[in-house]
Task: structure prediction
Amino acid sequence: MAQLVRVRRLTEQEGQKLQHIVRRGSTSSVRFRRAMMLLASAGGSPVPVIARLVQADEDTVRDVIHRFNEIGLACLDPRWAGGRPRLLTPDDEDFVVQTATTRPNVLGKPFTRWSIRKLAEHLRRSIARPVRIGREALRCLLARRGITFQRTKTWKESPDPAFDAKLDRIEYALNERPDRTFAFDEFGPLGIRPTAGSCWAERSRPDRLPATYRRTHGITYFHGCYSVGDDQLWGVNRRRKGIDHTWAALRSIRAARPDGAPIYVILDNLSAHANWRIRRWAVKNKVKLCFTPTYASWANPIEAHFGPLRQFTLANSNHPNHTVQTRALHAYLRWRNQNARHPDVLAAQRRERARIRSEKGLRWGGKPLRTAA
Result:
């Protein structure tokens, strides 16, 4: 008498997986039906009963059971063959991907990017390795291999020889002396013009701002100071950047800690910040200036707080003059300092922090800190 066809003894994980598919369903009807076959066979049902249960041929049920006994749960995903033979070998596909990701001007073409039509034509006429492929097949091949049409991005490599030393000094101030660490930077230019933004409105009826073409009000710069330990932000609007305005901001920071103990101020390498008179004043008043590396202004912690400032005071605004704009900015600063841990403020800070660091993927930490002088 022929031996009955049935699945081998299921392991605990296999039984749980099959039960999960049968109970919860699956996005693939093939996986669902095969899981039913295997679970029914494990329960002692013969092949004819299983075939009637899943409305399948008995030979199909036997094939699934035999396949499970050979390779396990991998049999749930069919490996169907058939159809027209593949025209491209894996090496041909690699060649297509390599060509698509190579700039056309490198290959002697008079343009800087491929279109699907140009790429297919180039592959067909390639002397080294001609590949005949249609535009739709080429598009599907690139999508399958993870090649998409993307915008080119630019980036800067800092030439600062003291890059790591400056970052270490800033990290030391932020991690070891946060209650005596401040940040300073200019935010702007701030012009008088309607600024696009976002707000709640009826569907297809966005809020509109009038366009302006004569902008005679000039510009201002917000000179911002940020206390890391207190999480407080303050500043003044000025018509221009300059040594005298930087000096005034540093004096306001020094006044925030009137005990005379050393404080750390993080700022960028603008010439108005590194003037010899400011340096001499800083040494005399125990203000340790921590300059960010060249092209690395993202290392200044105040940058993350300029994002909410832009989002909540400038975006979606139409200030008539600088006086009104400055009042709105300082009204937000008063609210922000009273609600420094507000979820909207924290979320905007996270988005701005991610934006200013995403280009290089840089994050704090990961390096041993050196003791700062």
